[in-house]
Amino acid sequence: MEYNYDKLCLETFLEKQLQLYPEKVAETLEEADDFLDMCMAVVCKDQKDVKGYLREVGLDTADLDISEMPEIFPLSDGRYLVVEV
Question: What is the rounded distance in angstroms from the CA atom of residue 12 to the CA atom of residue 76?
């Protein structure tokens, strides 16, 4: 799990931010980086890492389908961006 947002993370968030928020919260890569930093979003290496992180913050992950969670953004390289709301 990491807190650094590369270009893929930022572009994915900009493209899909409306799945989580009713209106855009960022327009540029710099704004997306600032917003994700402010939210303390994390980048997880795989689904197992995502579930481990969610358990750390107190969620029961036994029957959890992360693909249905709007705060989880799958990245094209197999990682996941998790944005706290």
Answer: 9
What are the tokens at 12? Answer: 């994915």
- Least Cα distance to 78 among 35, 34, 41, 48 occurs for 48
DSSP track, 51-63:
HHHHHHTT---TT
pLDDT digits (tens, 9 = 90+) for 1-18: 766 899 999 999 999 999
Nearest to 78 by CA among 41, 33, 47: 47
- Summarised one tens digit per residue, pLDDT across range 52-65 is 999 999 988 888 89
Please name every residue paired with 44 in a beta bridge, in sequence order, or none if there are none: 80
β partners of residue 73: 81
Q: Output the pTM of the full model.
A: 0.92
- 10 Å CB burial of residue 31 (0-12, 13-18, 19+) is middle
The 8 Å CB, 24+ separation contacts for 54-58 are 54/82
